[in-house]
Amino acid sequence: MMDWKNLYCNVVWVLFFTGFTETSYSFQQEDLLQLSTFAESDQPRSPKCNVRKEFTFMSIAERMRFIQTYKTITTKEPYKSRYEALILDHPKLAIHIHTKKQFFPWHRLMLRNVEKLLQEVDRSVTLPYWDWSLSHLSPWRTSTLDIWSAQPWGLGGNGDDVTGCVTNGPFARDQWGIVTGNGGRTCLERKFNGVLPGIMTIHRALRYEPTNFTQFEDYIRNFIHDVIHWRIGGTMGDKYGSRSPEFMLHHAFLDKIWSDFQNQSPEHKWAFFKNADYKIYKTTILARNLVDNNNILGTKICYKDPFESYKNTHKALRQYDLNTVRKLMTKEAFSAPFFESYFDH
């Protein structure tokens, strides 16, 4: 009988030797200057590619630039009304765009449209993504370099116990607000709860065969996608979750997972969408024109891994069969009663 505790420890050692350790992403305040210097020098500078980076591995300057630009397009014309039209389309069209045919390409188009707005303000800004699997056991930390930091380069922390409103950071209720359905303004709410899926859950997604795209898409849309919305809670947990700044970072990561899946082979890239001659809902754009990140309506999108050995980690994990991967998923301390069936995929 296999000793799952020892096997999980062995996987931790595999991650360690391939560079995936907690110290890879859990920094202390004294490391801030060193990280900022590293992140600035390590990123590619290709004018031919929109490079999207993991938010907590960006430099302080890059994070602040994104946040300032995001606040500009959400509060000032001529950007604000266009931004609000984009994000309010999401709840209005929810029943149509959360389907196998629409989910991936529709959200890829939305991300690019928001990114284009950001670049009207600052051409150097691209959408970051948040790889929540890197800190899944302590996802709600608020130290200096965490995503939920109250510093100008973070998204602020949890909502308060009374109103649920975020009260610190750049998106605090006294600094920023979200649009309501009737055109008013209200505070951004959060209600952090539980732990999040870890790297084994991401690895399972990448192990689907192209012929099993239906399962892959269902796993992302109805499991990974939903869980993060509900674990953040508050605004992210309601039908208008697209109003949250973290919505864009979460969906950019889902797009990266699809992109990583696609990059495994031509069959993976065009799985299901090879002959997708139907239109993205409420647009004139064909779905197949949003499949290849090398050409998304004339723009190349590149996702930069958070650290150099990220892909090597997933290569190392391929030594384990899927039954073992499923068992290791249960060792990540993540549980979600409504999603138990996905642990058997």
UniProtKB/TrEMBL annotation:
<keyword id="KW-0186">Copper</keyword>
<protein>
    <submittedName>
        <fullName>Tyrosinase tyr-1</fullName>
    </submittedName>
</protein>
<dbReference type="InterPro" id="IPR002227">
    <property type="entry name" value="Tyrosinase_Cu-bd"/>
</dbReference>
<dbReference type="Pfam" id="PF00264">
    <property type="entry name" value="Tyrosinase"/>
</dbReference>
<dbReference type="GO" id="GO:0016491">
    <property type="term" value="F:oxidoreductase activity"/>
</dbReference>
<keyword id="KW-0479">Metal-binding</keyword>
<dbReference type="InterPro" id="IPR050316">
    <property type="entry name" value="Tyrosinase/Hemocyanin"/>
</dbReference>
<dbReference type="GO" id="GO:0046872">
    <property type="term" value="F:metal ion binding"/>
</dbReference>
<dbReference type="InterPro" id="IPR008922">
    <property type="entry name" value="Di-copper_centre_dom_sf"/>
</dbReference>
